[in-house]
Amino acid sequence: MMSVKRFVMSSGERFAVLLNSDGVPMTYPNLYTIIHLRNRGLSINTITAILEDIKLLFQLLDKLGIDLEQRIKSKDFLKLNEIEALVNLTSFNRSRLSGAASKTKIISFPKSNNKERARAKLVVTQDYVSKQLIYRRLTNFAEYIGWFETYLHSSAITSTKRLLKSRRPRKSTDIQSEYKSFDSDQLHKILKAVDPDNQNCIWTSDYITYRNELITYLFLYLGCRKGELLNLKVTDITLSKGGTSYLTIKRNPHDGSDSRLYQPLVKTRSRSIAVNQNLKKKLETYILNYRSTIPNAELTDFLILSNKGQPLSINALDKIFYEISKAVLFNVHAHAFRHTWNDKFSEKSQLLVATGQTTEAQVENDRAYLMGWIPNSQSARRYSRRAENKRAVEICLGIQEKFEDENE
Predict the structure, then answer these.
(1) 276 near 240, Cβ under 8 Å?
(2) Would you say residue 225 lies in a domain?
(3) For the segment 196-210, what is each residue's pLDDT rounded down to a tens digit?
(4) Domain end: 294, 317, 335, which one?
């Protein structure tokens, strides 16, 4: 079976290769990875995701009886019906493609009265992937095949890349559906669940309990990403006794001191963020009273550690929020804190704009800096549109209320 293997070079750089069923690196996919991906400075996570899609491409072509390398070498490029067949297979999940039984989900409808003995049920198959994943797969299929055709036949005229890209589903433009943040009640429940003084504490270890509370507050107060939090080091914290304390988020993709094979990455720009007294106190308490008690903690500078003194992994971080989700009975994931932070930022900045203390343009520049985006970033604009939509909804409701009052 083909596989994607990650490894760490002596320089500390993480890289990945695609292996065939015999465990031998595949020539052209890995050449593409080096020329087209690594040399462009793409992250190891992006490279791995693309290689996984290329692996899937070969598996689908195998199902269709197509030897891509031989076909391209002989200038027998994919035909329209073959491209259509490939596109159709792209919408299925990997389990279905591997021949596993269909996954089903049973949706039960509530009883309309107590005399009913059975509920109506709807069985829904879960064999298909999201439009976003189909879009990504077809993009990576098109880019690889287009590169392969051009690499072997630089003067050849082929439409494979264009045809594959033309069959990608349209990207969603619904901001509301993609936007998830916590409301005040949810935040209260989360913070109560992770409070070390809570009698119904989720975790039994004092270290893990205090560490996980700190993680929650770092996400909430800084709006940072998972990779940013897991890359924080004790040396990145400047705690001032009298003035403002700062925490610095740094990009360091090939950190030789990071022992994690799946190194969490900082996708955004480096920046320094001020921390208030509450967060400063939590950081001091964690470092001096809890982190210092963990075996091997003195061997690494990373701030967030496992109970064995190793830098915490992404999977371990995800498990923390899975456990919190079970305790509060709703889904809690790290990125929702980033959305919540941006909601609060929009609320605060709108007040400052309304009182003439700042401008809309400066607000977006400030947001971009604090989130680690480049100035005029589309990511910053997405969050500001969310605030604008909320403001438009409030105006719309106000107009409706005005009509109600006038007609009474």
Answers:
(1) no
(2) yes
(3) 999 899 999 999 999
(4) 335
